[in-house]
Structures are given as C-alpha cells and as structure tokens.
C-alpha cells in the first residue's frame, strides 16, 4: 500500500516551555522531512522521567491518534524515558511508534567490534532503570552516565534557566568523558535525552566515536515507512528489465 504524498512523522511532545534550537527533537528544521507535533498537557519532564505520570498513558495514545489522523505514518516522542511505555503504546496505537532512542541499542551493539560496547548518556541516571532497557530489548547492564542534577542542562529544562549553549556543551562533553573513564570499552554513544542532538557533532569530534540519538532513530524510522523516489533512470531500468 502506497503512503500518502503528505505523510509525516508525528512527534508526541511533553508539556514544556524551554527553548528548542535546531537539532532538538521539537524543532522543525531538525528534520529533513515533514513533521507534526502534539503536546500532552500535564506531561512534565520531571513527571515522565521519574515515573509519576502513569495516569497520562491515555493522553499519549490520544495525541498519537490525533497525529495519525493528520497524516502521520509513524510516531516518536520527545522523551527517551518513555521507553518504559514502548510496548503499551505500540499495542494501542494504529501506526508504528518508536518511543525512545534507546531502541537503537541492540542494533548498534550488533554492529560494533566484538569487544566494543554501547554507552548511554541520559538526562537522569538515577531514574534510568533496568526496566527501561529491558522494555526495548537492550542489555540492562548497558553503561550509563547522567547529566549533573545541578547543572545547566537540567536547570534549563526544569528550572526555567536561559539556554546557555556553550556551557551545556561543556557539560555534555564532561559527562561523556566520565562515562569513558569508567568504561574503556565504549565504542558508540547513544543519547537518551532528545534535547542532546545539538551536541552530537561536538561529542563525535572530541571523542572520535559514533553518536546516535532521537534524530538518527527518527530519520531511519521514517524512511522505512515512506515511499522513496530514486529518480526517473531507476524507473527506466525497471521497465527495461
């Protein structure tokens, strides 16, 4: 069945007010294709991250179905901690859903040299549990490091502080450095947090490691759900055959 010409990637958003620059999951220019957004009112970052927003599951389903009616052929979310709800949401939504960048871990792990491991940078290390990994088929012993609780990043997201890009980038690089210090076999990094992709290039350059995030996942996910036109020459070759 052919996908509609206007098919989009639907993004279910948490209820936030902080800035979202290009590279962030919630900025349209991040994506090389059409996206639509729906916000789940009351789904705050703190509530979703710390598992106190379970009563909002129906609201996440409603947002996903609304996006589907607007042309979404697949859905992602703006918080990697929704990995905990991957199976529940997939069972209830009418189009495929990929809740978290953590879904990439098993595939990335299979691609690495035999002694290499995936490491995760997360918004809140204390709240990222074995269950989050198990729900997406990833190794629950995956090494993780979290952004500092009193740092710029979390103060911006939950405390309303200004977006200080340079300071936040230093914070992310420091966090990756600490992960690598204690896990010398890390061969690839996955950002759990969907606000981290603007810093992926800096991390790649600094540590010479591949970095995966919500953007790498969303792009892969969307292209599998839509028709791709490889140009008129391909059609001519097909007709000739």
Description:
With 241 residues, this protein is of the alpha/beta class. Helices cover 38% and strands 15% of the residues. The chain is built from ten helices and eight strands. The strands form two sheets. Strands 2-1-3-4 form a four-stranded parallel sheet, with helices on both faces. Strands 6-5-7-8 form a four-stranded parallel sheet. The longest helix has 18 residues, at 165-182. It starts with 7 loop residues before the first strand and ends with a helix. The mean pLDDT is 93.
Q: Low-confidence stretches at least 5 residues in length (pLDDT < 50)?
A: none
How many DSSP E strands?
8
Portion in strands: 5-15%
Radius of gyration: 18 Å
Q: How would you briefly describe this protein structure?
A:
Helices cover 38% and strands 15% of the residues. By secondary structure, it is α/β, with parallel strands linked by helices.
């Amino acid at each position: 069945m052919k996908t509609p010409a206007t098919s989009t990637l639907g993004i279910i958003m948490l209820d936030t007010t902080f800035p979202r620059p290009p590279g962030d999951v919630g900025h349209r220019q991040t994506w090389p294709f059409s996206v639509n957004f729906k916000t789940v009112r009351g789904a705050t970052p703190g509530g979703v991250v710390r598992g106190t927003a379970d009563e909002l599951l129906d609201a996440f389903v409603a947002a996903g179905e609304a996006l589907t009616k607007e042309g979404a052929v697949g859905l992602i979310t703006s918080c990697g901690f929704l990995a905990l709800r991957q199976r529940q949401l997939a069972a209830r939504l009418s189009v495929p859903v990929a809740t978290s960048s953590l879904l990439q871990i098993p595939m990335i792990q299979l691609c690495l040299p035999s002694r290499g491991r995936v490491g995760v940078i997360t918004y809140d290390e204390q709240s990222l549990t074995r269950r989050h990994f198990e729900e997406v088929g990833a190794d629950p012993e995956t090494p993780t490091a979290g952004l500092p609780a009193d740092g710029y990043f979390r103060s911006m997201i939950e405390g309303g502080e200004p977006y200080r890009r340079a300071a936040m980038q230093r914070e992310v690089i420091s966090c990756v450095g600490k992960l690598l210090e204690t896990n010398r076999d890390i061969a690839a990094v996955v950002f759990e947090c969907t606000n981290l992709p603007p810093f992926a290039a800096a991390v790649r350059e600094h540590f010479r490691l591949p970095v995966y995030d919500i953007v790498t996942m969303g792009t892969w996910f969307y292209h599998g759900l839509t028709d791709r036109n490889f140009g008129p020459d391909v059609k001519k070759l097909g007709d000739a055959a």
